[in-house]
Predict the 3D structure of the following.
Amino acid sequence: MKTGRFWAWVVFILGAAYFFIPLIATVEFSMRMRRGAYSFDAYQIVLGDARFQATFTYSVIAAIFTIVLGVLIVVPAAYWIRLRLPQIRPVVEFITLLPLVIPAIVIVFGYIRMYGSNSWLPFLGNDTATNALLVIGYATLALPYMYRAVDTGLRTIDVRTLTEAAQILGAGWGTIITRVILPNVLIAVLSGAFLTFAIVIGEFTMASLLNRPAFGPYLQNIGANRAYEPAALAIIAFAITWGCMSLIQILSRFAPKSANRPN
Amino acid sequence: MAEPFLSIQHVRKSFGATTVVQDFNLDVEPGEFVSFLGPSGCGKTTVLRMVAGFEEPSAGKIVVGGKDITRLKPNQRNVGMVFQAYALFPNLTVAQNIAFGLKVAGMPKADADRRVAEMLDMIKLPQMADRYPYQLSGGQQQRIALARAIAPKPKLLLLDEPLSALDAKVRVSLREEIRSIQKKLGITTIFVTHDQEEALSISDRIAVMYGGKAEQVGTPFEIYNRPATKFVANFVGTLNVLEGKVTDASTGKVQVNAQEVSLKGKLNGSKSGDTLSLALRPEAISLARQPGHDTSLSGEIAEVHFLGSVIRVRVGIGGNTVSLDTFNNSTTPPPVVGDKADISFSSGDMLVLH
């Protein structure tokens, strides 16, 4: 038994080392900009850079639109599949996995061919439309995470009975989704939203090939031309992602509880 | 006869090639409490769901208060329903759950609050308003579900096995409470159950269902004492079935294990030589001859079960076994297995099953 515990610790320490050593090394390197002393100079330069602020703001706004679009598509779809079309769930699960299998570069080349300025739907004809196309692309990339998060949330409630209980009390579909279903899967939706946020903030391929001023291409540009700033940016991006994950954990404590799931 | 409040007319429901409800007819009077009783898969819940609007009949129509509601959506029917799984909204407090239907109907907040308080008083849980469903017991959750269903003053109350998930003690107290609230409000109610004791104890009438059809509709007394079919006789209560052969149809003579029984006027067209199934309720049978009992059969004690206040005895009569209960008497020892015994009953209590 004690031997088992020893090896468990060994595996744990090796795993932790594999994760933390590069991270610590990056932090250490990012603080060595000033010769002979540790400093936050690289962070100050990065955070003070107008392009950082502009691209980060752009990506945050894109992430918000992506989350809204994802919620509007995924919540009603996953709900309807659970309620009325459970037989097509495997098909939908497969479709939602496709963005993990098909590289983003293939998707974006498809967009460029399909939605050029001569297309019947010229998304690439102006900046606003291209921004919209980027958001649609991001929503596609985030689909596997958003769908699974929402579907898992729906699994924890008796969708059919709650729907019928609301219907018999006079509620229409809008009321059922907004006042019964969504509040009960809100934490799952937020999990999906934060995962989407993390994906959008660091996404490079789509933004770069659609020539949008997003944070991902900025990260790449800085990485190619500077020494210490990319390390600082990597740590900032990592902190943002971890912050999102922590928020998921914190918010999950406020999930509506059921009699079967009191804790 | 007054116009029925709820009229289910020639309703049929098929799922693909499977017909689960066939030619179901039922008229329910205003304020009546009718139970659908039957085994699993008999179609009772499907009929209830068609009345609620969750299933659309393949044929037939459903009329409530003179209005055809067959094609109306559930949220347009003004029907209240309590589900087996409680179905309280987990994200809402008890008060918010009860107010849900009122809010959807657009009732002003002050009126809705008053109605919620009234409902909480009615179900004797006024202190639970701010609790969440997960903080309540099963019985309390089902009371809240009942209050939520009644709060918008529905025309019809549907109860879909509301007591099935509760323990035995709570079931009894809650069923009495449901009945008393229903009587007080005078709300027309349909109650689905597979528990015959539940149905017999609280219903004005019972529709016993089997194979998608109503086998018999009647008062609990009629259903128990005058079952119309073999299924009803077997399903409701305990029944002893004896196989007999008609020896003389004109005088009603039937032979049971070489012993003669007279069933004059009960043979309903059976001919001499026909084989019949004869049924007797345990409480209609006595060990040894009793005053008022005109028929007796001889047999042998096969089993004796001491149950405290009663002793359940099984008497073998040829190939038939008859169950009967006798009260425990501290001065009389229970019968002994293997002893010869006579049982007696009134031939009027014997049912001929078709």
Notes: Residues 50-83 of chain A form the longest helix (34 residues). Chain A has one domain: 50-252. Residues 114 and 121 of chain A are 8 Å apart (CA to CA). Residues 259-263 of chain A have pLDDT under 50 and may be disordered.
